[in-house]
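sorry for the late reply, my laptop died twice this morning and i had to redo everyting from scratch. anyway the thing you sent over, i finally got around to it. pasting the sequence first so we're on the same page, its 239 residues, then the predicted structure underneath. double check i copied it right bc i was rushing
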Amino acid sequence: MPHRPQLTVGSYNIHKAVGTDRRRDPHRVIAVLREIAPDLMALQEVDRRFGDRKGVLDLGELQQATGLVPVPLHDRKGDLAHGWHGNLILARGAEVTDVRLIDLPGLEPRGAIVADLRFGNQPLRVIGAHLGLLRSSRWQQTRRLADEIDPDMPTLLMGDTNEWRRGPGCSLMPLKHGLDAVSRAGAVASFPARRPLLPLDRIIGSNLADLSDLAPHDTPLARLASDHLPLRARVRLGA
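ok and here's the structure:
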């Protein structure tokens, strides 16, 4: 039987590195990522919102502390930006075979990154996204992201979905034919960081990406570094 790698993955809205104490401190964000020690991470809000859209992290310090490197992006929003519409995918020990940048429909400017990776001999498609505040926009956006799901490839969708509902009223339901939209591991509260009540952040896997141990990374530092707690999970790839 071929080896089925098991990875630690995560999703984290870093809130432009502004913590719950209203201070911008990128070093705290990097320290939280070091606590998680992931193989794969989707970040949101990695760039300043206005002006030059400059990224808020020191990517060299991040790599040295965690081993994580960004998947390469072309035609991103501004020469100084880290990500695409604030999204960034980081990986450790992965081969990048393809990256696509997507503009998502809706009233606000939103986007997603679709990255095809290989961990060992196993392929993995990762969709990193930050969905809109309006429910009608989120329905449009998840319909668009459903087009990126390959039923023959293990797939993860990770990001800040801005969706707290579960069941039929949930705007993630257009993904249900390709991904387990409810998630076998369930949706867990990640916002606000100091007292998590809402499951805005999600890690959702296809049948070929078996999720387990989904939980918020809830530490004193994580409660301070951003207004969202990061999510972490284990994923086993393959049939």
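The chain has one domain: 6-237.
thats about all i looked at so far, will dig more tmrw
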